[in-house]
Amino acid sequence: METARVFNIERFATEDGEGIRTVVFLKGCELRCKWCANPESQAFRREILLKKAPCTNCGKCMEVCNQKAIDLREGFGFITNTSLCNYCERCVDYCINNARCVVGIDMSVDEVIKEVLKDKKYYKMSGGGITFSGGEPLFYSRFIKECSKILKEYNITTLVETCGHIDNKNIREICNFVDYIFYDIKHMNSDKHKELTGIDNELIINNLIWLSNNYKGKLSVRYPYIPGCNDDADSIKLFLDFIQTLDNIKEAVFLPYHRLGMPKYEGLGRKYEMGDMKSLTTNALKCISHMFKDYDFHVKIV
Question: Is the pTM of this model over 0.90?
Fold first, then answer.
């Protein structure tokens, strides 16, 4: 039975595909986007996350840790050193304020299916379904394929959100089984992409070209609009011009920057690289809408 490392299952989601959806977040990604909203998704290993708001700084977690893996770090709180932690979960169990949690649990196909089917009536009512996100969910392509095959028996659609930095064989494995793909492009300039994410975009671009030529489902390309990173007119035009060359693109979608992931960086003892950058609203991106009129594919801001 295939398994995947799940770090969250979000029910009643309305922004990750059509209708009411359940989003299964899978752990592990090779990109390190400066604005990543899910820093706990990046490492494949399990992690202990500190939720700073309910923490009262009692120090019980440090006291009960037999591995001496917890340090009080200035500006962050009681942070777990992952190289020392053996994930016994004593610090979680002894925290009376529920300020600590394990991020990452290995689940089988059957376990995930059992969980997501709890809301099958809402999928049917709204035209929704299941979204696999991350991290990079396609590291678990066999797992997603097996889940999708079972979900089709219930007439439940599946969607994959991917950054595309994955071996092409993983993409081919799911192509005939998932109904939708949301595909992220962070920047068209490979050097700039590496500066922003730690990795160039060659594999990502090649995989998108392959999908545009071979994928029969609905393919949506997403552009996270990040101030100071890829929000200039030249970068946006490069993106739109590239999409114009592709077939089978349902739409291009601009996603306004938000900083909702910042507390999770603190909870992992990591610096948030976007600093004090404020979140953007959909209206803040209307200034670029005039750039869309010259293209014959649908472009929207969400």
Answer: yes
* Amino acid type, 199: I
Half-sphere exposure of 141 (CA within 13 A, CB side): 18
E-strand ranges in the chain read: 3-13, 21-26, 47-50, 70-73, 77-80, 100-103, 105-108, 129-133, 157-162, 180-184, 218-225, 251-256, 298-301
Q: Which residue reads 């037999």 in tokens?
A: 66
Q: Where on the phi/psi map is residue 164: left (φ > 0), alpha (ψ -120 to 50), or beta?
A: left
278 vs 158: CA distance, rounded Å: 33
Tens digits of residue pLDDT in 32-84: 999 999 999 999 999 999 999 999 999 999 999 999 999 999 999 999 999 99
Evaluate whether 162 touches 181 at the Cβ level (below 8 Å): yes
Over range 168-181, report the average pLDDT.
Answer: 98
CATH number of 3-43+108-301: 3.20.20.70
50-59 pLDDT, tens per residue? 999 999 999 9
Domain ranges of the chain: 3-43+108-301, 47-103
Strands 105-108 and 3-13, how do they pair?
antiparallel
> What CA–CA distance (Å, rounded) separates 24 from 292?
32
Characterize the bridge pairing of strands 77-80 and 70-73: antiparallel
Return mean pLDDT, the chain: 97
What count of other Cβ atoms lies within 10 Å of the Cβ of residue 66? 9
CB 259 within 8 A of CB 274: yes
How many other CB atoms are found less than 10 A from the CB of residue 148?
22
Which fold is adopted by the domain 47-103? Alpha-Beta Plaits (3.30.70)
